[in-house]
Amino acid sequence: MSTPPLPFPPSPPDQTPGKGRFELTPLGLNLIVAAYLLAVLNGGMWTSIFKVFAADPVALVAFSVSVSLLLLVLMSFITLPWLQRPALAFMILTAAVAEHFRHAYGVLIDRDMIQNAMLTTPTESKHLFTAQFLRDIGLLGLLPAALVFVPRLRVTPLRHLLWRWPLGIALSLAVVVAMVAANYRSFAPAVRNHHEMLASFQPGAPIRAMARYGALRFATADITAAPYGRDAVQGPLLKAAKKPVLFVLFVGETARAKNFGLNGYARDTTPELSKLDLVNFPDTWSCGTSTAVSVPCMFSGLGTDDYSQKRFLGRENLVDILVHAGLKVEWIDNNTGDQQVAKRLNGITRIDATIDPAACAGGECTDAAFLPILKARMETITENTVLVFHMIGSHGPAYYLRYPADQAVFTPDCRSSAFADCAQETIVNSYDNSLRMTDHVLAETIRMMAAQDRVIPAMYFVSDHGESLGENGLYLHAAPMFMAPDEQRKVPFVIWMSQAFQDTLDVPQSCLAAKAGQPASQDNLFHSVLGLLDIQTAVREDALDLSHGCRKGGA
To answer: Taking the CB of the first residue and of the last residue of the chain, which one, N or C, has fewer CB atoms within 10 A?
Structure first.
């Protein structure tokens, strides 16, 4: 028997691209990615939440659900056919990078950390790309991000999308609002006193940080520095100097007061400085926990409480004022640049192997490369001069590159930039060895200046911020100020003045020594440099000038 003909022709085989692949709705994909992010890449957040709400299980559940719904709301805004998968992949990669640095170093990604990343150099940043980093980002970031593109997405008709999308967001937010209202008495003090909970929320926190940094760059893109301290002149003592005055200002890097030998550390990390006659200020606080904040802050004259990058960029700073007063100012950099402090100088000198091949033999230049520059300047200067040496100091995680291997006193020392490869004591050993290099450079500077008679010299050293070496699970620096430990905020600070400087500028070193027991900070730098050099200007504040009251007549 023959088969009766079909009333319509058979359909051709389905040629739709991706046919046979696993199919998901857009919401389904969001739910899977959200579950992955919350379960795998938010260890820091969950640790904080469980610790904070340990005694209140109802609030714990409510807070956890609220955070999860907020993540879904964030995802809902990118649920568009052409945007969803790239955006989800970006969120996974962002969360993976942020969680790696939190887990490896205890570092949270905020706006200042994004700014640090944008301003760092390839030489400095390469030490963070360890085998552990590549493994974590590959397995936890790149692979899951690639899997986002595997399933076929079911297309939602526009008529459904127009009501389902806003309704889903509204319902999620309604639940969050209800939970916050019901648990406000528990939530409010927890969020206010434990910023680390939301600061470790991945990828919400780093995305917010990137947005804030973008807003900052936009707001400061066209700022012109207003005149400041244009009345500055050299005072009668400086003008009457019979030889050029040379003021050497060392801006240190990542030295923490706790491990500085002059401050009573159990190890002798300052064996050379301890033999010299100088003034040490053991209780000194930084303006921030990163170079990008502390360096411009200390030169701005704004002070820790009033500093912002926008305000810093909006007016001239200490370098400009010294130039207005007729001094020659040079910025010599062995770090990530001047952070726009010296932007109105005619260029800066960057340390490289051509300056001192021996100091750069290890692949990166140690701060010993400053010494031949200092020697050359002392032999040639004919006018009052300020040299700003921006040090590499103890910048991590590659502490072992900050000193020659044959000068390692504390051993075994960590010879890797991946802390996971090193025992804790070896990390501390390498850090302390790097402090000894700073000690040597500062002490040799003093000895060189004291041994000559062409210039009238003085030296001022302060570190930009400190460093965490594993305390409470934290490493490196740049912790947000709300959670920054003393290890990242207390810094070494010393002043040395030759007898000729003391006599010429009428500032007895004994007067500064009498103030050394008082708390000091980077806020003192702007005003004290002006005071020590006898720069007359209305912007100098006596209360922050450490030399105030030391001269005859109380000036």
So the answer is: N
Contacts for 354 with CB less than 8 Å, ≥ 6 apart: none
Is residue 257 packed enough to be buried (19+ CB in 10 Å), middle (13-18) or exposed (0-12)? buried
Residue 279: its H or E element: strand 279-280
Alpha helices in 183-301 (DSSP H): 184-193, 196-199, 204-219, 236-239, 291-300
Whole-number pLDDT of residue 242: 96
Q: Are 353 and 378 in contact (CB under 8 A)?
A: no
Instruction: Choose among 387, 358, 359: nearest CA to 533.
Output: 387
Question: In Å, how far are 190, 230, 233 from 324, measured between CA atoms?
Answer: 50, 6, 7
Q: 484-518: per-residue pLDDT in tens? A: 899 999 999 999 999 999 999 999 999 999 999 99
**Spatial distance between the Cα atoms of 434 and 405, rounded to a whole number of angstroms:** 10
Query: Which CB contacts under 8 angstroms, 24+ apart, belong to 54-57?
Result: 56/186
Looking at residue 7, its pLDDT comes to 42
Q: Where are the alpha helices (DSSP H) in 366-423?
A: 370-380
204-219 vs 111-119: helix axis angle to the nearest 10? 70
Cis ω for the linkage preceding 412 (within 30 of 0): yes
User: Coil, strand, or helix at residue 246?
Assistant: strand
Q: Assign 176 to helix, strand or coil.
A: helix
Q: What is the identity of the amino acid at 389? A: F
Span 5-39, pLDDT tens digits: 444 444 344 344 445 567 888 888 999 999 999 99
Sign, Cα dihedral of 439, 445, 336, 308? positive
Distance of alpha carbon 254 from alpha carbon 491, whole angstroms: 8
Alpha carbon distance 84, 305 (integer Å): 42
Our CA dihedral for 75, 76, 77, 81, rounded to 10 degrees, sits at 100
